[in-house]
Amino acid sequence: MPATDYQGSSAPFASLGRSILSIRRDQIHSMDGHDASCNLELESFQRHVADLFVDLLNSLAGGGDGAGDAIPIPLAWIRKLLDSFLICLEEFRVVLFNSGPAIARSPLDRLVADFFDRAVKALDVCNAVRDGVDQIRRWHKHLDVVRVALTSSGSLGEGHIRRARKTLTDLTILMLDEKEAGSVVNHRNRSFGRSNRDQHGHGHHRRSSSSGSAGSSGGHFRSSSWSVSRTWSAARQLQAIGGNLTAPRPNEVTATGGLASAVFTMNAVLFFVMWALVAAIPCQDRGLAGVHFSVPRGFAWAAPLMSLYEKILEESKRKERRNSSALMKEIYQIERCSQQLAEITDAVQFPLGEEKEEEVREGVQELVQVCSTLKDGLDPLERQVREVFHRIVRTRTEGLDCLSKSHNPE
Question: Best exposed site among 33, 35, 92, 393 by fewest CB in 10 Å?
Answer without folding.
Answer: 33
